[in-house]
Amino acid sequence: HVQLVESGGGSVQAGGSLRLSCAASGVTASWYWAGWFRQAPGQEREAVAAIYSGDGSAIYTDSAKGRFTISQDNASKTVVLQMSSLRSEDTALYYCVMNGALFKAWGQGTQVTVS
User: Fold this and answer.
1) What is the sign of the dihedral through the CA atoms of 49, 5, 107 and 27?
2) Which of 28, 35, 62, 76 is most deeply packed, by most CB within 10 A?
3) Burial level of 55, CB count in 10 A (0-12/13-18/19+)?
4) Are the beta carbons of 79 and 95 closer than 8 angstroms?
5) Averaged over 78-102, what is the pLDDT?
6) Distance of alpha carbon 73 from alpha carbon 56, whole angstroms
7) How far apart are CA 115 and CA 112, in angstroms?
8) What values do phi and psi take at 68, rounded to 5?
9) How far is residue 23's CA from residue 7's CA, in Å, rounded to a whole number?
10) pLDDT-derived band of residue 74, with 50, 70 and 90 as boundaries?
11) Are 5 and 110 a contacting pair, CB within 8 Å?
12) pLDDT value, residue 60
């Protein structure tokens, strides 16, 4: 049973930085995608960034490019989203997700508020 626990959310002023972390347990697969989604009040959940465990390839949505960096530690099954130059429109509940051939799991979310 895969479980994901996010941490690192909080409140920050515009232009500031935050580092989100996602710790996974129960992941036995070697190859999977891990990523971050976010959902603002009244909005649909949207993708932010993802990284492939096999080679570290990362993809970003246009809003994240140049400001956010996703990274991973395969040994500890941890995925980190480093966010900088934060804007008010980045305010949302951020979810970690991991998706392998035989599993898909979501975290409970961590709130990011930019004022």
Assistant:
1) positive
2) 35
3) exposed
4) no
5) 97
6) 10
7) 10
8) -110, 150
9) 8
10) confident
11) no
12) 98
